[in-house]
Every structure is written in structure tokens, then in C-alpha cells.
Amino acid sequence: MHATKLCPVLLAVAVLALPALAGDVPDYSTNVLVTFEVGTMENGKDVVRKTYEMIVNANNEPVEMSTGARIPIPTTTFNTSNSAGSNVVPVTSFAYQHVGFLANIRAEFNEDGTIRLRGRIEDSSLTGTPAADGRPFIQSMDQQISATLTDGKPLRINRVDESDTRSFFIQLQAERLDEAGERVAKN
After folding, report:
1. Rounded Cα distance, 95 and 40, in Å
2. Running DSSP on this structure, what letter comes out for residue 99?
3. Burial class (CB in 10 A: 0-12, 13-18, 19+), 86
4. Has residue 22 got a pLDDT over 90?
5. 84: confidence class by pLDDT, cuts 50, 70, 90
6. pLDDT (tens digit, 9 = 90+) per residue, 149-180?
7. Does the pLDDT at position 59 exceed 60?
8. Are 28 and 178 in contact (CB under 8 A)?
9. Which one of 5, 96, 121, 174 is at 20 to 30 Å from 30 when CA atoms are compared?
10. Sequence-distant (≥ 6) Cβ neighbours of residue 153 within 8 angstroms
11. 10 Å Cβ neighbour count for 27?
12. Half-sphere exposure in the Cβ direction for 89 (13 Å, CA)
């Protein structure tokens, strides 16, 4: 190859490599550790706090986390068409509902170093008192999110007041991970 044809190629490679040679490119992976805290407060104090963590690749691909149980919900109908005389036959069927924690999250890095999270978070639980017909009573908090977080700083994104003394909340925190999967310390 002629030297005049090779020079533009070498120049282009050198220009592309300059930021890496100068140390301007951080040595981060594209992974983010996302921590979800879901809790209940009574009289301003935490009484229940559940923590969930998941690693999300910050390439804006969705990641889902689901933990909990499928709870049977009975439904009873009464069949009178096949009964002889005045007999009514109860028929019970079950539908199953997920109860627990569910998160479907996308993450990406902003140019200013903040972390953008988008998606949906749901937390549900059985209450101690079933409904009058015996079916379980399920308490649920469902939140669509679009939040920009500073690396390592928690952000409370939701608070629902059930009464004057009791409330529920969801708090998020996102932290960059290095290539080894360790948290990146901020300066």
C-alpha cells in the first residue's frame, strides 16, 4: 500500500484512540446495581422494610425481577341446569394471582453521569383479614417510574398514605458497577 493512502487510516485510528490514551474514558462496565426498598411506616417510623436488588445492564434493555407466590382466589358459581329437582350444585374454580414483588426496569447512563431508570414496580401482600366471602384480601402498590438518579443516592419515588398514621413507600437507588462487578466509588 502506498504511504499516502495509509496515512489517513492511521490518522483516523489515532484520533479515535486519543481519549482512551488520555485517560478520559472511565473504566466502567455498563452494569448498574438497582436497589428497591419497599416499606410501611406507622407514626413516621419504619415498621416493615423489604429490600430487593438486581443488576441491570444500562443499554436500555428491559430486565424483570419477580419474587413472591401465586395465590389461589376461589370463585364459586351455582349450577342449576344439571340438578335434579331443587338441588343447586356449587362449582368452585380458582384463578391465581401473583403476590409479592415485581419490577420491570430499563436503565441507561446520561451524559452527565446520572442514571435514568424507567419501568414499572409492583409490590403486593396478603392482609391478615380475608374478605367476608373467605377470599384473600390483597393490598397492592403499583408504580410506573421514569426517574433520574445520582449514582449511589436514594430517591423516594412514591408514598401512599393509608391513614393519618400509616403509609407505604418505594425508594430506589442505582449504583454503577465496575468490570469486576464491584460498586464504583464516587469522588
Report:
1. 28
2. E
3. exposed
4. no
5. low
6. 999 999 988 777 777 888 888 899 999 998 88
7. yes
8. yes
9. 121
10. 173
11. 8
12. 8
Band of pLDDT at residue 28, cut at 50, 70 and 90: low
Place of cell 472511565: 26
> What type of residue is 52?
Y
C-alpha distances (whole Å) from 151 to each of 37, 109, 116 are 16, 10, 10
Amino acid (one-letter) located at 20: A
For the beta carbon of residue 81, count every other beta carbon within 10 angstroms: 5
Mean pLDDT rounded to a whole number for the chain:
79
Bridge-based pairing state of the strands 28-42 and 45-57: antiparallel
0.90 surpassed by pTM: no
DSSP three-state, residue 14: helix
Task: Report whether 37 contacts 170 (CB < 8 A).
Answer: yes
Place of cell 380475608: 130
What is the 3-state secondary structure of 117-179? EEEEEEEEEECCCCCCCCCCCEEEEEEEEEEEECCCCCEEEEEEECCCCEEEEEEEEEEEEEC
Which of 61, 42, 51, 71 minimizes the C-alpha distance to 170? 51
Spatial distance between the Cα atoms of 161 and 41, rounded to a whole number of angstroms: 9
